[in-house]
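Notebook entry, structure prediction.
Reason for the run: the old model in the group folder had no record of what sequence produced it. Starting over properly, with the input documented here first.
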Amino acid sequence: MHSVDGSKEKKTNLKRSRSSSLCDMPTTDSPATQTPDRCNDVFSIKEIVQSPLPAIFILSPPDGGLDESNISPEEKLRRERSRERGLGVTRYEWVKTISKKKTIMVPLPVGGKVVDGNLQGFQFHSNFEQRQLTYGANGSTVTHGLAEYIAQEEDRKTGYWWSLDGKFIAFTEVDYSEIPLFRIMHQGPITEGDWMVEQIAGINEAAGLVYFTGTLDGPLESHRAKLCPDENSPCKLLVYLCNLIDGNVVMSIYEQPSIVPGIEKLQLEPPEIVDIQANDGTRLYGALYKPDATRFGPPPYKTLLDNRGSARRGLKFEGFLKGNIGRVDAEDQLTGVEWLIKKGLAKPGHIGLYGWSYGGYLSAMVLARFPDVFQCAISGAPVTSWDGYDTFYTEKYMGFPSEDAESYEYGSVMHHVNKMRGKLLLVHGMIDENVHFRHTARLVNALVASGKPYELLIFPDERHMPRRHRDRIYMEERIWEFFERSL
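New structure, fully documented this time:
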């Protein structure tokens, strides 16, 4: 981790003023996003925190910025791995400032970006003058301000952080040229209990406090809490949004509002959370989306199930996958469908699956393992054999292929292809750098060898998930048509 001092006059000088008024910033040239003079308009705090940031219609870099073709390759890959498809201002932060100006929101995509491996920033008070902030990276073996591949794929999506006053920036330097062996030191945990820490929100070194978010009241909720390292019992915090001038409470943000502004126009109902028992008695949670039967007709309904191995349930729940990928996760999906049939919410003979990435793998695996229950599946960018996926992820659950060849064989979709009777639609981008197209190609070879029919939808210019608008529309239309024809 590196920290750069903005007070020193050197190449890495990063001093920035980040509190310019919205009125001082350039507006986008696109007629579709032009708005009236908003300087005198007042956006309520509730609108800002519960709805898309109003500034998304006001700001853009000088070169436009509202097109993925207008960003660096590093930023394209970051957005790909974070599954981010939104344009305009997609993230923002609140910053402390001594300025008397009222604007305190800073759109992060404009606060910095990575080009050719080096971190660059924009100077807000000089018409977005672009300035290189770091030097020495080359974009291939050494990068600055960009989370390494494994971090982006698993948990951390960013590689640089502005200080609250905007005077400093901390960034990661990743060097792939020589990666030495090093020993991982494990220290004892400072929390315990049947819940998990999701994210470290902050550390107050002077007071000896750690702030974090976690599932203290169960996996269906997330709470902010604080903990003194000398204690084992965290204390939940109630978070309020306050006026920075007089300190008055504007609203609480630790409770979900009963009505989100604008959502009532869509006439949508929230999902019903249901409890289902796995075959070993483990509690599984499902989200049941039940549309208005008077408008959309009777069941079956769309259902999402949290099978064993899913995130946010703790190490024991996730640990069920150890050496068991393709077993317990697929069996839990079967348990969920049997529950739906028993409740009259699903119709036997008319059940399909749709998943992407790991979900794509699970869709194909379930279709092959339980041909009497599932009639069709759409498998998007699937891992089809774990001996071909990245070692960091795979070996965490499966160990080495040389040590557990049986689990690797059973966890391969190709091992079960001969039992498949339902219809399968495979969808994959041919330049997918996460789950390589080779996975789909290997499954196609196995399907051909077994004489099993399949359908294939490929996107030659897409990566792990289609991102271009026309490609997504085309894909969704094909998916809808496949389900209507197959069920």
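Summary: Residues 2-175 form one domain.
The old model has been moved to the deprecated folder.
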